Amino acid sequence: MGVVASAPAKVILFGEHFVVYGEPAIVLAMDRRVYVKVENQEDNTLHVRSTNLNLAACFEKNRFRIEQGDPKEARLRFEPVRQVVERIIEEHGASVGLNVEINSTVPVGAGLGSSAAVIAATIVAVSTLLNVKLHKEDVFRLTCEAEKVVHGASSGVDPAIATFGGIILFQMDTGFKPLDLRMDIPLVIGDTGVERSTKAQVEKVKSIMEKYPQIAQLMMNTVREIVLRAMDALKENDLETVGSLMNVNHALLYGVGVSDESLEWLINAARKAGALGAKLTGAGGGGCMIALSNEEKLDRISEAIQNAGGRSFKARKTDEGVRIEQN
Ligand code: PMV
């Protein structure tokens, strides 16, 4: 028994890094989800378990007790979960004990937004179990606040996708605009398995942008043009153009120094296997790449990425944001 909620992971299709300098980005929710199961617990403690990470811990008032895995990692990963659970219990009015179990089909720490998906799904599962009424906007806001604990200042892209799903155009000054696109976007995701820090990659780009301000401006204009053309191509169901624009976008990301050997191997393998386009996604320097493909070549591309040393899986856009799976 208990309540199960799920939320989707994200990929950035276009515009990462340049989005930090005010340019637009296109981000989509994919059909890989994080599942969070919440049950009542007899005592007044909060138990959190992540089956994929082999971590378990218990929070009791201000005390933290590790039950499985590395204490430091458990504390770091579970802190935002504890924070949102406490906020909802406050709304609920009476203290309760809860058991939270996280099951994920999303690689962790690879730039796919798994932490925001965990938080959004936890919020919806706990509020449903405790009969605390929340609107989607509340879920989004709480997820943003908790994400700040994990990532520091955040653009809010991951919480928006985890909460609302679909495909969005994001820009710093104007925020999110959901794009009403009916077309399918068949992707293969390749995970290099190389750990990277978003912060370090953002710093790397900053030094290039500061060193060559005129070139930086031209690159930013180019990214804006890529995003605008990609929106048109997506509306017209023109996957070939979307793919070739992904290649151009990747060239710019390479130019600002955020690709690396592990990504280049997988991107080249995907292109050779017939991808319409391939690029890194997210911060780069490791992490994940994406390849766009016609339906019939998806398996071949997925295999080629694996043969090149990556882990791969097929993914599609999903319009479903956070949702209840079982109540
Ligand atoms: O952390 P990731 O891999 O999802 O990448 C974040 C995207 C950046 O544009 C590099 C940074 C940002 O805050 O938008």
Descriptive overview:
The protein has 327 residues and is an alpha+beta fold. The protein has two domains: 3-180, Ribosomal Protein S5, domain 2 (2-Layer Sandwich), CATH 3.30.230.10; 187-315, Alpha-Beta Plaits, CATH 3.30.70.890. It has nine helices and 13 strands. It has helices spanning 71-92, 114-129, 136-151, 157-164, 198-211, 213-235, 239-255, 261-272, 298-307; strands spanning 3-14, 25-41, 46-50, 55-60, 63-68, 97-104, 167-171, 175-179, 187-191, 277-281, 288-292, 311-315, 323-326. It is globular. Bound molecules: (3R)-3-hydroxy-3-methyl-5-(phosphonooxy)pentanoic acid. (3R)-3-hydroxy-3-methyl-5-(phosphonooxy)pentanoic acid (PMV) is lined by residues 16-17, 19-20, 111, 155, 198, 202, 282-283, 287. Residues 16-17, 19-20, 111, 155, 198, 202, 282-283, 287 line the site of (3R)-3-hydroxy-3-methyl-5-(phosphonooxy)pentanoic acid.
Instruction: Compute the number of helices.
Output: 9
Which ranges are low-confidence, i.e. pLDDT below 50, for 5 or more consecutive residues?
none
CATH structural class of the largest domain = Alpha Beta
What separation lies between the terminal Cα atoms? 8 Å
* Count of the domains: 2
Strand segment tally: 13
The CATH architecture of the largest domain: 2-Layer Sandwich
- From the alpha-carbon coordinates, what is the Rg to the nearest angstrom? 20 Å
Overall average pLDDT: 94
Q: What is the 3D shape?
A: globular
Largest sheet report:
9 strands, mixed
